[in-house]
Amino acid sequence: MKMKTYRIRKPKIVVIGGGTGLPVILSSLRNQSADITAVVTVADDGGSSGELRNSVDMAPPGDLRNVLAALSDMPKLYEDLFQYRFKKEDKFLANHTIGNLIIAALSEMRGSTYEAIQLLSHMMHVDGHVYPSSESPLILHAEFEDGTKAVGESKIALDRKTIKRVFVTGKQKAHEVHAARKVVQSIQDADMVVLGPGSLFTSILPNLVINEIGEAVKNTKAEVVYICNIMTQKGETEHFSDADHVRVLHKHLEEKFVNTVLVNTEKVCEGYMDPSIYDEYLVQVTHDFNGLREEGCRVISTDFLKLRDGGVFHDGDKVVDELFRIVFGAKL
């Protein structure tokens, strides 16, 4: 385990997103002396999370569970138990994780997923703050360039159409969409706001299109950093360059708000990825550095690559080292 670094002044870093990319960065951030806040999407409607959000009327727990585990210092056995997923042959419990069920139970006990996450953060000795982006489950909608629409995060990539825009609504049509408590203030008080890594349309944007969060990110004095995905994603960012990712972010918020983009330039060996496990990823994102500069972004390009288990990931330690060079290069 990497030795934790201590500093007199802890930079306030807010990380916004969801999916598998967010915990990678948070795990490495936890080894640094930072005041960490994770803002996590609540638009997931697939798998165990989708079943529980429909059964218990709660925010989907999966991404929140992974973030709690990434920021917790609990013993490895406890973490393994929290993350344990029942086998698909187990009928009633099939594919549910222990952590998801614990979050569901606490959500029902407290009448609030937000309160459940705060209680679990204390119980699990989480180093930082974990907030759902909204205190109610949200429904993600997509409009495609051909004029058709899709409803539900798990449905958006199925037809592999070009996405024009995404937006969120409350689970109940009459419910207005608001940011969860402390989210906006955390963004306003931050030294740095980090977006990603994660699925552009289904992990990052579902947070930013909540109006209060989008406005906070645009208006914060913090450095806004986008960690660009290494691979394109089937049905979301096929044929995308790194500049295309940023253009989509700016188009959705109607303003050029990203200050710095981290781009991986290391090549993935052909045939390395295991398609039976990572079938949603296609090819590496192409580079358009002039396009990024036209979007008003500083570009930091280097080797951020980590290959493991037949998959392509960001090297969390390399990314976090760069984030700290950026944040300490600015006035804290």
TrEMBL record:
Give the molecular function GO annotations. LPPG:FO 2-phospho-L-lactate transferase activity
Is 4Fe-4S given among the entry's keywords? Answer: no
Q: Which UniProt keywords apply?
A: Cytoplasm
Q: A Gene Ontology CC term for this entry?
A: cytoplasm
Q: What InterPro entries would the database entry show?
A: CofD (IPR002882), CofD-like_dom_sf (IPR038136), Gluconeogen_factor (IPR010119)
Q: Where in the cell is it found?
A: Cytoplasm
Q: Give the UniProt record's GO annotations in the biological process aspect.
A: regulation of cell shape
* Main location class: cytoplasm
The superkingdom listed in its UniProt entry is Bacteria
What is this protein for, i.e. what is its function? Required for morphogenesis under gluconeogenic growth conditions.
Q: Which HAMAP family match?
A: Gluconeogen_factor
Family, according to the entry, reads as follows: Belongs to the gluconeogenesis factor family.
Q: What is this protein called?
A: Putative gluconeogenesis factor
